Amino acid sequence: MQNNTVETLIAAAVVVVAAVFLFFAYTSTHSGNFNGYDVQASLANVDGITDGADVRLHGIKIGTVTSIAMDPKTYKPVVHLSIRSDVHISDDSSIRIASGILNGNPYLAIQPGRDGRMLGPGAVWKPH
Length: 128
Fold this sequence. Notes:
Blueprint: H1 2-28, E1 36-42, E2 54-57, E3 60-70, E4 77-84, E5 94-99, E6 106-111, E7 123-125
Parallel strand pairs: 1-7, 2-6
Antiparallel strand pairs: 1-4, 2-3, 3-4, 5-6
């Protein structure tokens, strides 16, 4: 009978560890949805960036890459971003591709500008 109790406790511990891992994976990928506004950004390149990549400001996730297309006139990539509605980005801000420390996944890092003109829903952004 003692063997069954030990096996049951070990199985319960495995289930708890698996649940904690799944919770950590869900929260670290920021899979939750948020309300936001859409912005198009024309970039020089999008090496490693895919749909669903994070958009961060000072390391804090403020949005997501919703799609990537190519401008047929300039052949430059155009990235469609969904930005949290409580975050406003100045139109003279810059953007770069960065890599996460823990998971190595590339994301778009925004460096805020100083101009008072903010990007609004549907804006076409040409970052510096």
